Amino acid sequence: MVRGKRQMKRIENPVHQQVSFCKRRGGLLKKAKELSILCDADIGIIIFSKHGKLYELATKGTMQGMMERYKETWCAAEAEEEAHKSLELKQEVDVLKQEIQMLQMGFRCMFGNRSEKETLDELHGMERYLENRIRLVRTEKMQNMFQEIQLLRNKDEMLEAANEFLQGKALEQNLIFNMPPATAGNGVFDGTPVLTGPPSPLIIQNECFEPMT
């Protein structure tokens, strides 16, 4: 008979819960011992039951010794991480100091306030710094130029579309006002008025009529 997969949820029956705890605890400790023997590993397990009873296993030495070893390893890893962060912070501070020195030297050179003569390395460093700044300025300038060109192209396309629309409207108006005279079926003018230009507004003059006596 094939056993189905057990659903992982809390066992409500206290008797079944205690039986399952004892079986699985024994299996866990057994597997830990086997792993320690097969792979020569140091394994420590701490278990607290539902009622607070302690079960522990240290495959090599004592649990106290294993806890001390764990604490030392954890502290060493934390100290190494802190040292790495401190090194990164120190590198950032050094870079900022170099930039400040370059700016100060550039300021002195621009305004002629050179109290002491710079060394060749300092001049090379200032030259590299200025070249990098010029490169950044040129890059930003090219980006702004490309954006302006794109805006002008979009504006030109909008103007062309508006021009085509207005030309179409003007052509429609010309066709309406320049239509030939309407004729009947036999080709004789039927008397329908034809518009030859823009329609003029109608003016109705006011007239006074006296009542007949």
Automatic annotation (TrEMBL):
Question: Where do the K-box domain residues begin and end?
Answer: 86-176
The subcellular localization recorded is:
Nucleus
Its primary localisation, in coarse terms, equals nucleus
Which superkingdom? Eukaryota
An example Gene Ontology CC term for this record? nucleus
Q: Which InterPro entries match?
A: MADS-box/MEF2_TF, MEF2-like_N, TF_Kbox, TF_MADSbox, TF_MADSbox_sf
Name listed for the protein in its UniProt record = Agamous-like MADS-box protein AGL12
